[in-house]
Specification:
By secondary structure, the protein is an alpha/beta fold. Helix 2 packs across helix 10 and helix 13 packs across helix 18.
């Protein structure tokens, strides 16, 4: 694990330990490298049936590429049957095109110690994405502002178990729609040194993201390396719109990574059955990823799905359900057979508050994603109310619990220390292990311990105000924001980024739709 500058110098003895506990430190864990097996729910026969059905969907039913004549021409040139805006992809063509996408890639951060490896046995955790509202204990539920956005970037930077700064951690509604991407990118680039995501809400905003990244990293570096990952949602069922595909074209052409991701609410955007949904998910992934390779063979792509089911009484999406787990496990198997990095999972919940419902649903969703073999987990912390709200308190609650994923993924050590035979011999029958040499040597790292949850005796807890978890989280938010220290940055680079943002804003009249 890497520790960022900021920890105060330590002296010896008890004073040293007290200083270590009270010092402001920003420690970030390395991305997760799994030492546990993936959970595979589908047998070989089921996988082959779904793969064959997905090819049938592409060939016989087809997919729509709307408002994008250039995309239609690319498909014609590749050998697809294009009828109007409907593209029928011959059996095997999409899979052949997908084969040029890399199995793994590095996303570079401006602090090289924060680089992440996407794919293989790795899991990269990124925060919530997209909510127009925020919630905290003081202000309740309200529209998000740029200050909120900046606060979430700071919290993400200071979260030990979070590897990625993310993208639209909330929508800053006090900034014009056509300009807010500039402020959001500037916040990610200056307030954090973790990897970040680019804008996808319009192709020109993707181009701005590339231009700002070239200021931050240098033209040549961006031309030859991946410094952004961006979310390209498919309009399920089986429709690729011009805006999202236009953004994908910009990123693919510039060798920047795209997350090609169906947005699935089972029963609304996909069939109610697991196998039917997986068939559609695979067809959409094949079409979207193969299109990225038509733009630029070898451009990095993450494939996966946002998956939830629907409450058939209210029509609201539901989270942490068994069906969502089945689909997430199965999609992981299908994506791995394509040789692509896999995106899914998150701190999903439908609760309006960071309460017991939120905790149950989030825990189910996070553990499901770990076991499913997810490589890039968007929405890993902060998600509330079905994705409508970024919650300050839930952000730090979730970010704390991401530590359990790191420790679960380590698996079981069976080396000499892990076998603990010396301890068993030393203690013998009827003794205890608290004072034995093995315990003394391992007690600091033996068990994962939350930095947020309360483990105190009842009396101490009562004396300290009988605080519940939301209250503890609120205190943590205020402390982290008060303690925040921006990572070092070259002043000239900052000035160049700020000048670019000011110039681009001056070139456009404000637009709020």
């Amino acid at each position: 694990m890497n520790e960022v500058a900021g920890r105060r110098a330590r002296s010896g003895g008890g004073a040293s330990r007290r200083a270590e506990r009270t010092a402001i430190s920003f420690e970030t864990a390395r991305y997760i490298e799994r030492n546990i097996p993936n959970f595979e729910i589908l047998n070989e026969e089921a996988l082959q049936i779904i793969e064959a059905n997905a090819e049938t969907v592409l060939e016989e039913i087809g997919v729509n590429f709307v408002e994008n004549p250039a995309a239609l021409q690319r498909w014609r040139d590749a050998g697809a049957d294009v009828r109007g805006e409907r593209v029928h992809i011959p059996r095997g063509l999409a899979r052949k095109l997908v084969s040029t996408a890399p199995k793994t890639f590095t996303q570079h951060a401006r602090n090289a110690e924060r680089n992440v490896e996407v794919g293989g046995r790795n899991l990269v955790l990124a925060p919530v994405y997209g909510p127009p509202f925020v919630r905290d204990m003081e202000g309740g539920r309200r529209y998000a502002t740029l200050e909120d956005f900046q606060n979430f970037v700071k919290l993400g930077y200071m979260s030990k178990w979070l590897h990625h700064s993310g993208g639209t951690v909330c929508e800053p509604t006090d900034i014009p729609v056509n300009k807010r991407h500039l402020d959001m990118l500037l916040a990610h680039m200056t307030l954090s040194d973790k990897p970040y995501m680019g804008s996808v809400t319009e192709p020109s905003r993707a181009a701005d993201s590339v231009a700002m990244s070239k200021i931050l990293f240098g033209n040549d570096f961006v031309d030859q390396n991946t410094v952004m990952t961006s979310l390209i949602n498919i309009n399920s069922p089986m429709t690729f719109d011009g805006i999202m595909m236009g953004a994908l074209e910009v990123y693919a052409a510039n060798n920047q990574a795209s997350i090609v991701s169906p947005f699935i609410v089972g029963g609304a955007m996909a069939p109610v059955t697991v196998a039917g949904t997986l068939t559609q998910v695979l067809a959409e992934i094949l079409a979207g990823v193969s299109y990225s390779q038509l733009v630029r063979p070898g451009s990095p792509v993450i494939a996966g799905a946002f998956v939830t089911s629907i409450d058939m009484n209210s029509g609201a999406p539901t989270f942490g359900t068994p069906e969502a787990a089945h689909i997430t496990y199965g999609a992981g198997q299908l994506v791995r057979r394509l040789g692509l990095p896999y995106r899914s999972g998150g701190s999903f919940c439908g609760s309006k508050l960071p309460d017991a419902q939120a905790a149950y649903e989030t825990a189910n969703s996070l553990n499901m994603a770990l076991l499913a073999g997810v490589n890039f987990m968007l929405h890993a912390c902060g998600w509330l109310e079905g994705g409508l709200v970024s919650s300050y308190e839930k952000f730090v609650m979730d970010a704390d619990q991401l530590g359990t994923l790191h420790h679960l993924a380590q698996g079981v050590s069976i080396d000499t220390n892990g076998q603990a035979m010396d301890a068993i011999r030393e203690v013998g029958p009827g003794g205890h292990y608290l004072g034995c040499a093995h315990t003394q040597a391992n007690f600091k790292s033996a068990f994962w311990r939350s930095d947020l949850l309360d483990y105190k005796p009842f009396e101490t807890w009562a004396e300290e105000g009988a605080r519940d978890t939301q209250t503890l989280a609120n205190e943590r938010v205020r402390k982290q924001l008060a303690d925040y220290q921006a990572p070092d940055m070259d002043p000239g680079t900052r000035e160049a980024l700020e000048a670019f943002v000011a110039t681009r804003k001056a070139e456009m009249p404000d637009a709020f739709i």
